[in-house]
Amino acid sequence: MSWLLTAPAIETELSLVADVGRVHxxxxxxxxxxxxxxxxxxxxEGERDRVRGWTIARERIEESWWSTLKTKATETYxxxxxxxxxxxxxxxxxxxxxxxxxxxxxxxxxxxxxxxxLELPMVERYGYAKFGDLNCHYxxxxxxxxxxxxxxxxxxxxxxxxxxxxxDDYGHVAAQLAFY
Length: 180
Prior knowledge:
Blueprint: H1 3-15, E1 22-25, H2 33-40, E2 52-67, E3 70-84, H3 91-107, E4 111-112, E5 115-117, E6 122-131, E7 134-150
C-alpha cells in the first residue's frame, strides 16, 4: 500500500489551492477550542480566529487480482474540510467557492504519488459539524486511486508526471504499461 507516497502527494496538491487553510495528514479529534484554533486556524496574522483547514484519511483499501502474478489496490481517500461558520460574513459562499476551487485543482491530475486517479474527485457529504466546540461548514471530498503490483516485487510502480501523460483505453498511463 502507498499511504507514505500517496497521502503526502494529496497533501501537496491540496496545499497548492489558494487560501485552502492548513492541511493535515490523518484525522484530528480535539475538544479544546484553543487546540482546534491552533490546528486549523488561519496562519495569516489578524485572522487567527478564522478556522479553515483539511484532514486527509485513507478509509478503504481493496486488493484484487489484475492478471497472473499481478494485483491492483484501489484506495479511497477522504479529504475533510472545515471552515468556521459565520452567518454575517458570507461564509457559506466562500466555503462553496473553496470546494469548487479544490475540485478544479484535482481535475487535471492523472497520477498522485505512485497511484493512478480512477475518478474525478467528488463531494460526498456537505453540511455543518462541530470541530471541538466550534460550529463549522463541513464537507468530505472523496478521491479514488489505484496502484498495480507484481507479486514478489517490493518496489512501487514508477512515478509519472501528470502533465502530458497519455492514457490507454483502460485509463492507465501509457508510460507505465511496460511494467505489466
